[in-house]
């Protein structure tokens, strides 16, 4: 049988973990921002692993692709600023447009799921119901 360690024992069969940050104090030249000190840089680089190129590309496509959702509401707002429609009508149209784009984006996302068609339809229906419920609550509150 292996040696048993008492609960009070200071010995441990497990090596202690290396410290996350250096224990010695680091100094930076006067006027250096706090985030640019060696200790802060060490914490930032070790706390977050850098993404792979494929992950970064996917994040960029997602980030810039989602900006297309705001094109229609901004166009409606521009039409309202031009005086063609009043502001209240424009805000209702923007809310409806955002609900519709929510449904379209969900449809595009659900299309790629590897689940049965009824689950895709359920996810799309639930998202549509929540978007339309939010629109209904917004219109009811502002009436």
Characterise this structure.
This protein has 143 residues and is mainly α. The chain has 5 helices and no strands. The protein has helices at residues 38-47, 53-65, 71-81, 87-110, 117-141. Helix 4 packs antiparallel against helix 5 (117-141). The protein is extended and about 60 Å long. The termini are far apart. The relative contact order is 0.06.
The gross shape turns out to be: extended
User: With helices defined by DSSP (H or I, 4 residues minimum), what is the helix count?
Assistant: 5
Q: How many angstroms separate the termini?
A: 78 Å
Low-confidence spans: 4-9
Residues in helices, as a percent range:
55-70%
DSSP, total strands:
0
Strand content: under 5%
Q: Residue-averaged pLDDT, rounded? A: 75
Order of helices and strands: HHHHH
The major beta sheet can be summarized as: none
By helix and strand content, what is the structural category? Answer: mainly alpha
Rounded Rg: 27 Å
Helix/strand layout:
Layout (H helix, E strand, L loop, with lengths): L37 H10 L5 H13 L5 H11 L5 H24 L6 H25 L2
